[in-house]
Amino acid sequence: MRSAYFYRKAQAAYQRLGDRSKVEEMRAKMREQSKLAEQHEFAVIQTKVSWPTEQISKWVADLRRRPLDESLIILSQHPDFSPSLEHAESEWRAVFQQFVTPTVQRNGLPVWTALTPEEIHQYYVLQAFLQEMSRTASLVCYMLREVLVEVALPAPALADWLLTRPLYAGTDKGILAHALEYYFSRDWIGALHVLPEYIENLLRLVLKKIGLVTFSATRGRSGAFREKDLDTVLQTEDLRKGLGEDMCVYVALVLTDPRGPQLRHMVAHGLLNSNACTESKSNLLIHLLMLLARYEIRRLDDGSASETPKSPA
User: Using CA atoms, how far apart are residues 272 and 258, in angstroms rounded to an integer?
Assistant: First the structure.
């Protein structure tokens, strides 16, 4: 992998000199060495994750002793289940940042490539962040199932509870309950094709509740309007202030950012095949639902509105 790293440095040098033929030569050598590294150097990298099963069992037992509403509030608002970019920054592995320029591919086509050292660094931090959130989502969803295990109809029960939370008021109960029914019946194809659209609608509704528009004028057509894309919605300053930077990054990685699962785009463009519909991806969406349940909209002194987390129970 060191060879690929130095070929990349050479490519950058030839690019500054304007020697296109050498740039292409270095690029070809870099790809060749990267493939060799994947087959040999990186083939021995292993990851082992262990769960504190005894502690988890105690948590579940404590939650089951509580009223359902209280248990769900704790799962939603517990600080250990919150996204943290700062923690991910301390977890990433520098060896990859030094020697590998990341490129993300979808269906064999590159959709994102790091162009600067800062982008390379950020990519690997975000991968550490996403791995941590995947583990957290799996834990939250396991505990959620255990809490709801004695409920006759868990999907409607969770939907009813979510609709009592401030941000969910006005959303479509039928779609939410249908999506959760897919999830609890372990129909990952159904869950992954409905939940991203529901969460997108929820975020658009939040903007409307705080007095912001979710549409923009269509270029070249006087009097015509179109809905803003979800990336633009997630970049709205008031939304980022209210939800927090870490939460917005998490939502974007799951739904729209090519450096993450990008589930909203994959579904919307018909690119999510059945083999890619997994429990782990579905868990990320359920985790987002639970996290969004902790927020409420408060009027500020200046008359504006902001989404803020409710105090943990």
Answer: 13
First to last CA, the chain: 50
Q: CA–CA separation, 89 vs 245, rounded Å?
A: 14
Do 114 and 102 touch, CB atoms closer than 8 A? yes
Strand partners, 295: 309
3-class state of residue 78 by DSSP: coil
Instruction: Write the DSSP symbol of residue 206.
Output: H
Coil vs helix vs strand at 228: coil
Confidence of residue 312 (pLDDT cuts 50, 70, 90): very low
Domain ranges of the chain: 1-45, 52-309
Please check whether residue 244 is in contact with residue 90, taking contact to mean a CB–CB distance below 8 angstroms.
Answer: no
Round to whole Å and give the CA distance between 160 and 49: 34
Cβ(255)–Cβ(263) below 8 Å: yes
- Per residue in 236-275, pLDDT (tens digit) is 999 999 999 999 999 999 999 999 999 999 999 999 999 9
Render pLDDT for 5-62 as a digit per residue (tens, 0 to 9): 667 777 778 888 888 888 888 888 877 876 776 666 555 555 566 677 889 999 999 9
| The pTM of the whole model exceeds 0.85 | no
Q: Hey, what amino acid is at 11?
A: Q
Give the whole-angstrom CA distance, residue 268 versus residue 275: 17
**What span, in angstroms and rounded, lies between the C-alpha atoms of 235 and 253?**
13
Amino acid at 147: V
Q: How far apart are CA 126 and CA 88, in angstroms?
A: 7
Query: What is the phi/psi pair of residue 132, to 5°?
Result: -65, -40
Give dist(CA 207, CA 212) in Å, integer. Answer: 5
Alpha-carbon distance of 241 to 305, in angstroms, equals 11
8 A C-beta contact, residue 143 and residue 56:
yes
Are 155 and 187 spatial neighbours (Cβ–Cβ below 8 Å)? no
> What confidence category does residue 95 fall into, taking pLDDT thresholds of 50, 70 and 90?
very low
